[in-house]
Design goal:
- The structure is a single chain.
- The protein contains 11 helices and 7 strands.
- It is an alpha/beta fold.
- The protein has a domain of about 190 residues: Rossmann fold (3-Layer(aba) Sandwich).
- A 7-stranded mixed β-sheet has the order 3-2-1-4-5-7-6, sandwiched between helices.
- α7 links the parallel β4 and β5.
- α7 packs across α9.
- The longest helix is centred in the N-terminal third of the chain and has 13 residues.
- The protein starts with 7 loop residues before the first helix and ends in a 25-residue tail after the last strand.
């Protein structure tokens, strides 16, 4: 989404409020995170610093901490309560681990928690070796600007790996809401090919993109809506309809969704996009100009 389409204050409020209930409802989020973690098995990368974008309650962060035990980890999220939950999830060292930590170089055992916007990363250029993000990029104000920021903080040879949602996510719910009114009730998501183009424009080389459809099923519509609310996935469009649906509108919504019922269950489709891309030698500036290095030798007199 672009900044004009997304109510950032509402996004922050929703996720901050959902921190306590998130893990109980985040079945899909954990599954996608696990599948994204598996993709790291094929990457020959030993990062000194890892940045987790949209760390949430820290499920992926804890796995990254285990996988890259010697790395310095930076976890970024817009919701303070999510970061608090992530800190609680990280293993607390016992006396033996604390004694060992005193013998370990400080930078290799740190985990920093940062409450910040992914569009405005508070990190130095070329300071990170791996930028990781599982199901957070769909909440960016301006995705292309965010990707340029990821490229800026990644060092040459660094890797961006992410999962996000595509346009067919919650297509059944979107279709059911269209039977009620023309207002946006489900957030819009960016197409795989557009994300690939954005990666190239941001300076990444040869991005690899994949897509798969995952479907959850529910006994009724209330159960689906309860899950979405539990993870903080509210409709955050600036043009969204305010207020709760009335009884009549809710009844029409339920009836419209019933048209999708299969084998006694209501499906909820999620289009999951996976992507990764590498940073090259970074000899091109962000404005597209190429950096050319010249070596000038002074000519000695008489030569």
């Amino acid at each position: 989404m672009t900044e004009s389409e997304l109510d950032f204050a509402e996004v922050r409020r929703a996720f901050d409020h959902a921190a306590a209930s998130y893990d109980a409802h985040a079945v899909l989020q954990r599954e996608v995170c696990d599948r994204l973690l598996e993709r790291l098995d094929f990457m020959t990368l030993k990062p000194a610093r890892v940045l987790d974008i949209g760390s949430g309650t820290g499920y992926g962060l804890a796995h990254l901490r285990s996988r890259y035990a010697e790395a310095e980890l930076c976890a970024l999220d817009i919701a303070p309560s999510m970061l608090k939950a992530a800190r609680a999830r990280l293993p607390q060292p016992g006396w033996a681990q604390r004694a060992l930590a005193r013998l370990t170089p400080p930078a290799s055992r740190l985990t920093h928690l940062m409450c910040a916007d992914m569009d405005r990363l508070p990190l130095a250029s070329s300071s990170v070796n791996l930028v990781w993000s599982s199901l957070a990029l769909q909440w960016a104000h301006d995705l292309e600007a965010a990707l340029k920021g990821f490229h800026r903080v990644l060092a040459p040879g660094g890797l961006l790996m992410f999962a996000t949602f595509g346009p067919d996510t919650l297509k059944e719910l979107r279709a059911a809401f269209s039977a009620i009114d023309d207002a946006p009730h489900v957030n819009r998501f960016i197409d795989l090919h557009d994300i690939g183009d954005m990666l190239i424009h941001a300076g990444f080389g040869s991005p690899v993109m994949e897509m798969e459809m995952l479907t959850l099923t529910y006994a009724d519509l209330k159960s689906l809506m309860r899950d979405l609310k539990g993870i903080g996935a509210h409709n955050a469009a600036t043009t969204r309809r305010r207020g709760l649906l009335g009884k009549s509108a809710w009844s029409r919504l339920e009836q419209a969704y019933e048209a999708h019922r299969q084998e006694g269950r209501l499906p909820a489709t999620f289009e999951v996009i996976y992507g990764h891309a590498w940073v090259g030698d970074k000899t091109q500036r962000e404005d597209g100009r190429q950096v050319i290095q010249l070596k000038i030798q002074k000519k000695r007199a008489g030569s």
